[in-house]
């Protein structure tokens, strides 16, 4: 029986048991306390969540949709896209199209003969490239107003020596679009559909700008379900239904500390001291793996795209805290 069918049957069983007056049993919820999960969901809903999904052992345990959203509703994932960009680069490395330790200038030839020439793909993935950053340039000019986000991003100057500064940098991440496009000789949204979204059966897609560049710093249209599947792929060391989608070696690199300059960041994945790791985007979009409980949990909120500043103020309570505290409370004997 396929995992997808098992998940569907699990959900049907859960609904049937939940409707029997006494609520779902601990056994039905795969070792997670149903009342604690409901409390987490109520907390998320009160804080403006659109959806919440919990998997354990790769199977659907609970799913909530709020405010008129549905399980298949797609919305802006913001910087959860970065973590997916990391997976795409990993797939390209597995295909011998590139090595993350080679200079990005092997593909971004515009950097040849400049201070950016030695910047490696790994440094772009770990936010240590030293590429130019200020808020106005990164969030307003590039993210909101540029019609050619990749061209704009590769045209910025080198601000620091590569590998000497950690700086969260959307524009630097977007240059990976040029690397991947030129390494694969494919449009990046096509590469993602063929080698990641398609094999996982996802509806997610990467939107493109006016110049046809796929967003890798942000811009993925996705759902709680799809984010959960992507995160489960990482928890399962790159395998899905018995097929190796991304090498175990790359996954291990992506979710460990990537630089001495930042102890809670991997290769475009965030790290928690508890051992959890997660994708995180503006407005509280989070997809988290908690290996200690064999749990994946995802939460997405309504988004605000009215201005660059809105990305810093939308959302509410920390989604990471809601998920970590909720799953800790729900884990029997955890």
Automatic annotation (TrEMBL):
One Pfam family of this chain = Beta-lactamase
From the record, what ranges are coiled-coil? none
- Boundaries of each Beta-lactamase-related domain copy? 52-300
Q: What is this protein called?
A: Unannotated protein
Organism of provenance: freshwater metagenome
